[in-house]
Amino acid sequence: MDVRQLRYFTAIYEHGTLSNAAQHARVAVSALSHHLANLEAELSTPLFVRKPRGLQPTAAGERLYAHAKSILKAMAAAERDIREADGEISGEVSVGLSHSVVKAIGVPLARAVLADYPKLRLCLTEGLSGSIVMHLVNSDVDIALVYNPTAEPALKTTPVLEERLVCLGRREIIGGTDAPIAFAELLELPLLSLRPGLSTRAIIDDPGLLKKLESRAMLQMNSLQAIGGSLVAGLGCLVGTTLIMQEHLQSGALHVRPIVEPEMTRTLYLCEMAGRPATFALETMRGLILDLVDDAVRSGRWEARSLVADARRS
């Protein structure tokens, strides 16, 4: 198996037919067919099912595509990195950020890249923490900031920030006082939550407390916009952070109360794939992200405890 075979295989997978793939790859259809036959013979398994309207990948083809995509992306990054080692930082870096992180540093990150690294192309993906981790594993993003990622050997995780969770809702739902609310009292309120699953498992550090909250939730949604609208409409309350509902708190539509007995926190992690080589562009982006997180906490824009100093030493 060589790089050319992987490139041709990827073209066939993405374009669905030999003729379309050949046009994209700028080679003859016969040459493409020859390389595919050799690759399948070498791997001793069919990679596509031949159908009248094109080629459908087999299970082996699906698995090979995931590997090929990661390998080709790493090779392209390595080539750019070495060629531009002595010049201005350039290339493309894909960053995945959870919704809260986008609210805190999304615009400052874009502004810093445009101002300080004009040849660096930033591709930003926003989503729930679990889905962002899947993008990272699938090579769709190079680096990510997510909450409480799954423990996987292939994933390098570094804690960078810790947030305290609060109760958010209308005053008539959670009470007009600023006094803390006990966790046991919180469970008696009409709770809203993100729908449980891989994409939303990161709301809180303590899995036992999370399970209790999820079991009592009257409404479960995988949409922060829908949850925000439901909170403003007085349909319930939410365990979250002040940052995620910042606009509604500032307008007075929602109220916030600290949670005690026990206090609850969630931890933000900087995540990368352990086996992927770092590039100058990726190292630059990592440092920039850490600077912005630390600055957001120090300036008071992000109500949290920064762990960036420890992250830099790790």
TrEMBL record:
Keywords: Activator, DNA-binding, Transcription, Transcription regulation
Molecular function in Gene Ontology: DNA binding; DNA-binding transcription factor activity
Annotated ranges, domain HTH lysR-type: 1-58
GO BP terms, alphabetized: regulation of DNA-templated transcription initiation
Signal peptide extent: none
Family annotation (Gene3D superfamilies): 3.40.190.290, Winged helix-like DNA-binding domain superfamily/Winged helix DNA-binding domain (1.10.10.10)
Family: Belongs to the LysR transcriptional regulatory family.
Protein name: Transcriptional regulator
Origin species: Thalassobaculum fulvum
